[in-house]
Amino acid sequence: MGRLILASTSPQRRAILADLGVDFDVVPPDYDEVPLPGTAAEVVVARALGKARAVAAVRPERPVVGVDTEVVLDGDEVLGQPPDADAARVMLRRLAGRQHRVLSGVAVIGAGEATACVETRVHLRALPDDELEAYVATGEWRGRAGGYAIQAEGGGLVASIDGDLDNVIGLPVAALRALLAAEGHALPMAGGNAAGT
Fold first, then answer.
1. Mean pLDDT of the chain
2. What DSSP state is assigned to residue 133?
3. Which helix (H) or strand (E) covers residue 24, if one does?
4. Residue 86 to residues 51, 83, 194, Cα–Cα distance (Å)
5. Which residues are catalytic?
6. In order of start, what are the domains of the chain with their CATH numbers?
7. What is the pLDDT of residue 93?
8. In this predicted structure, what is the pLDDT of residue 194?
9. How much is the pTM?
């Protein structure tokens, strides 16, 4: 497979691809994540495709991968990333002791365009106030959908997971592998759950 272009600034997505031994470049997408109509699943796919299209417009010579990940609670409420510690505290209190969904839209642009949506269900433990405060104090919530990082200290908040761990970290590898295969490209088989959301 030729060198991929990752349309993302996420260090977690870079870490997953590097762990797999993928040859890739990072090109930050010139894409504004404005609110979009539709279900949470439709929105993450549309944003992933928007990011990939933004990069493919200026770098059309190689396959481009775009990804968008959100934490979804109570049916279809997208939580986003907490802007500050107070918001992280509120978000984590809402998630504690409950199950939520992590949705990722994945888009690959090569000869054509292909997309997928991956869902993983995560159940956080009930969190005593002192434990919640200690986690917020780590600052790990910054830049994290849902306010936690499952691959780091936030993994200790998790009671169970049903689905793809890489999806929760930020890049569902199995879905990406299938989309690239449909474009005639193959990801290396080595690797697996990289450190990094």
1. 91
2. H
3. strand 24-26
4. 29, 8, 29
5. 68
6. 4-182 (3.90.950.10)
7. 97
8. 38
9. 0.89
